[in-house]
Design goal:
Elements lengths: L21 H10 L4 E7 L5 H10 L3 E11 L12 E8 L2 H16 L7 E3 H6 L4 E4 L6 H7 L4 H15 L4 E5 L5 H17 L3 E3 L11 H12 L21 H8 L3 H13 L25 H16 L1
Parallel strand pairs: 1-2, 2-4, 5-6, 6-7
Antiparallel strand pairs: 2-3, 3-5
Helix pairs in contact: 5-6, 5-7
């Protein structure tokens, strides 16, 4: 049996983009004999707990991740916001999970400008315990490759990510989803991999379960953009290849790059994350009760009655 694990995958929680339900993800991984599967929704961890519970229940290792948005400027800048690039992040352990939570939260609270963004300085401060993949065609390296940046600039960009995550925790992400741009990007990424000794990994940017489900993504894209399916000028999905492929299908595509496929297993094996989800073991912050109150209940009651008098 061919070995492969999906490490770049969008669920319904990639709002108005992904159309995969959590149950479908877990069942597909189980049916294909995958030991693990990742969830990497756009800029959020909304589905992380549901995904973790359901995958664990069925004996599939859940890899909690996120496709974050990285700005080349400051995440707090609004006027000259800079370019926004995609970056795939995976939590290797509890520290990585906590950093993912921090990245997601701050991207909304401090970095939101059209998208929930972070900058590289913030990533550097919260990179421990994370494994990063260079992203889809909207990643910084792929975008610069397609724009014709020279090798010096590409090396500089690559080094910026290696500095943030470390050489062992950053992988060049290869995708072949039927687009001509994939061939151009993959060729250059393989050159960079060989020249600078950076590992590669194969992904499929999964957005739906089966090829025929492409129409579902077309529908939610129409909702997102306020258009109709019969509008000839509407934004369209260029490929039906971003479905939940079997290991055999992925090997048929990347068979000559065995390392890229087996590295999905290596990454999955590295992930060691156990979440404490026992509702009876709740961790609440300590709060010092000021004088003259003898208990938290006494203080709460007093504040409640004072508020009642002020309002009514």
């Amino acid at each position: 049996m061919k070995k492969f694990v999906h490490l770049h995958l969008h669920s319904e929680y990639s709002v108005l983009d992904g159309v995969l339900f959590i149950d479908e993800i877990v069942d597909a991984a189980l049916n294909f004999g995958m030991p693990a599967v990742a969830l990497t929704d756009h800029g959020n961890l909304f589905g992380a707990i549901e995904f973790y519970k359901k995958a664990t229940e069925k004996g599939i290792k859940p890899i909690i991740g996120m496709e974050t948005y990285v700005t080349d400027g400051s995440m707090q800048e609004r006027v000259k916001a800079g370019e926004i690039y995609h970056l795939t992040l995976l939590a290797e352990n509890e520290e990585g999970y906590r950093n993912l939570l921090k990245i997601s939260t701050e991207s909304y609270l401090k970095g939101f400008y059209y998208k929930p963004r972070v900058d590289k300085e913030f990533l550097k401060q919260h990179s421990k315990g994370l494994i990063a993949l260079s992203g889809c065609l909207q990643g910084e390296l792929p975008r610069k490759i397609l724009l014709g940046y020279d090798d010096t600039e590409l090396h500089k960009t690559l080094e910026s990510y290696l500095e943030i995550f470390g050489r062992d925790n950053f992988f060049l992400e290869l995708q072949d989803i039927g687009l001509a741009e994939n061939k151009i990007v993959n060729r250059k990424l393989l050159e960079l991999s060989s020249k600078y000794n950076v590992k590669v990994v194969a992904t499929n940017d999964v957005h739906f379960l089966k090829p025929e489900d492409k129409i579902l993504q077309e529908i939610v894209l129409c909702i997102q953009t306020g258009t109709r399916l019969d509008d000839p000028k509407r934004m369209k999905i260029e490929t039906e290849e971003i479905y939940f492929k079997s290991p055999e299908e992925m090997w048929a595509i990347f068979g000559e790059l065995e390392e890229a496929l087996l590295n999905t297993i290596e990454i999955a094996n590295r992930v060691n994350l156990t979440l404490e989800l026992d509702p009876t073991n709740i961790h609440l912050p300590h709060f010092d009760i000021p004088e003259p109150y003898g208990s938290g209940f006494e203080m709460l009651s007093d504040l409640a009655f004072k508020g009642l008098k002020e309002r009514f």
